[in-house]
Amino acid sequence: MTEARSLQAADKPVEITLPARRTPVYRSVDVLVCGGGLAGVAAAVAAARAGSDTLLVERNVVLGGNGPLAFDIGLTEGSGGISAEIFERLRASGNAAADETAGGALIYDPEALKYACLDLVREAGGHLLLATWVSDPILDDGAVRGAMVENKSGRFAVRAKVVIDATGDADLAVRAGAAVREPGETPLGINARVGGIDFDRALAGSAHWPALVAEAKRAGRLDPRQPDTIALYGITPLARERGIAFVAGPRFGGRQAWNSRDLSVSETEGRKLMRAFLAFLKTVPGFEESFLVDVAGTLALTHSRHVAGDATLADGAPGAAVPFGCLLPQGVDNLLVAGRAASFDPDFYARSGAGIDCAALGDAAGRAAAEAVRSGVTPRDLEAAAA
Predict the structure, then answer these.
(1) Which first-to-last residue range defines the signal peptide (predicted)?
(2) Percentage of the chain surpassing pLDDT 90?
């Protein structure tokens, strides 16, 4: 267990002292949710439905998180509650379909998931503050009482009776002093959406793709860091009709999903490599008329750091219940951590993370936060009362 590594500002770090200043309070709420991925959306919806005045702060201008932005579009039915509602909205709207390249596993349309998340929060009566970064917690004797937020309008304080960290990387929890467990590595990758594919011709030659990529690498036309084959995915009947699918690009190991320098290097290297790979694609039968639709808006990743909680899930079958203590960071009160950054053993999560229902964790966190507000206690007090 280690304290999170920080980004070094310079080879010889220099510090400055900023003058004290008065910060306006943007809003005082019952529940503040930091992060608008599936965990954050479910938390905000659950808290708002339970009657709490709820504010969801998200750094992007859309909801849904890393999945739709990174084109990580695998879809599971969900374990119930809000998770199942999201699945059902996608299915009922025709935006969940079987992927030929994944043995018929379900995938979703990225834009449809963004809309489903937005609709759920608004219908529940939750409030949104988009294009806004959560920067620092507001601390009072070891308890989180809100957070500082920053956006184009300036720097503001948001006061809250209970705060939920759904940033995916435990950003707020770490700044509140929570200890974290860091995985050995967090592979980062980049994906793209490509149109103009003749699927019949392309897939007929798929057995030759590894050899074609290997030859291009030997000839110096592709960087050795490129994928070993053409990793095409997202092939559905509608995709065939439109000639559009997704391509998984290069992956980078040994980097940290919570380190801005690693993210910057991976993003710039990944985009450069993806551009070269898409040019190579046009030499492959079935891809001659292919064109770039868009590169994913963020890097794909499988896991990140985890808080050290009152409980830690280190083993279990896929879909196993996650103890409530996994949402409670040790040494920090009045804060819940939902999503992939909850208290999991890093090795366990690396093996089983795909089976963790982040929306279900957010759902549980939102309901607990609302109950804590209603009862006038902290979320940790709820666990103690239930013991």
Answers:
(1) none
(2) 82
